[in-house]
Specification:
Blueprint (H helix, E strand, L loop, with lengths): L3 E4 L2 E5 H6 L1 H7 L4 E6 L2 E6 L2 H32 L7 H8 L1
Parallel strand pairs: 2-3
Antiparallel strand pairs: 1-2, 3-4
């Protein structure tokens, strides 16, 4: 299998190599990320399912923090009188 290791956990390989040795590539995903190239241009990145789940958890945590900060900012505006909470009826009147 022709592959180039560019750092300790990233390997670059061609799509044709991948097609011919899928099982070997899957077995090395535990410890490596694989960048697939086609005509020497990056086309895709393969990561293990565990890595995928970790990335999803990080994104979810960042979203929670981001929306939490927005909620706290809005709460501050409501307490200062800059903004108010609309009831369901007020929202329906305003937007329907």
């Amino acid at each position: 299998m022709l592959k180039i290791k560019i750092n300790e956990d990233v390997i670059i390989a061609g799509t044709s190599e991948f097609r011919n040795s899928i099982n070997k590539f899957i077995s090395i995903l535990k410890d490596n990320k694989i960048i697939l190239t086609n005509r020497n241009r990056p086309q895709a990145v393969l990561i293990s399912f565990e890595e995928y789940e970790k990335i999803g958890e990080i994104i979810e945590e960042l979203e929670d923090r981001y929306f939490g900060e927005i909620a706290l900012e809005r709460l501050g505006k409501m307490k200062s009188g800059e903004s108010k909470i609309l009831s369901h009826e007020e929202i329906l009147k305003r937007y329907l």
